[in-house]
Design brief:
It is built from no helices and 21 strands.
Length: 207
Amino acid sequence: TVVAGEDAEGYCTLVDGFGNEEDVGEPVISSEPADGISIDGGEIATQVPGKYVLSCAAEKGVELVSATLTVDSAGPARFVASLEPDTIEAGGSATLSCEVLDAVGNVIPDIPWVVQAPEDVVVTGTTVGTTLAGEFDIECAPADGAGDPDLDAATLTVTPGPPVEMFVGAKPAKEAYCLLDKITITHDMVDQYGNPVEEVEIQPVTA
């Protein structure tokens, strides 16, 4: 028995009718199933957990005695977060999911995990949301805090909502203007949470 990612060594022994053993030298080994491990002579590299029945190549008429190699799952090495959707409007929410992988990339099911998010993001179970526009890295991590796995964050993009308020100003800002002074009228739009809203078309109004 080995852990996925570890190597094992295989060998073939020829036994005659009297129980005498003879090493056959460079072994020729096959596996059932064939996928999930790689065999090069007697060197066996494991990738996928499972049970593999190993057999040696032999001449016709020779009884084959197989051996079973058990490959166990390695411990969690990487927590990969994903969001659905990954872009929301301010005040909206998204659902986080987490894929837990071992060191060689096998998915490990049923590993408890928790959400890790910045302070501005509200977490309710696996649901995340915020009223602040911007980008936020959301991670999933082992629930028991054990080990030091890699945490692959998902980026939550939050866009401003519809504009609800406009602030009008003038440049340059003065307490009073003289006749024929040139000024530029400025405007800033915000959504209901105070996030700036860009690229909003407005129509000038003249008195």
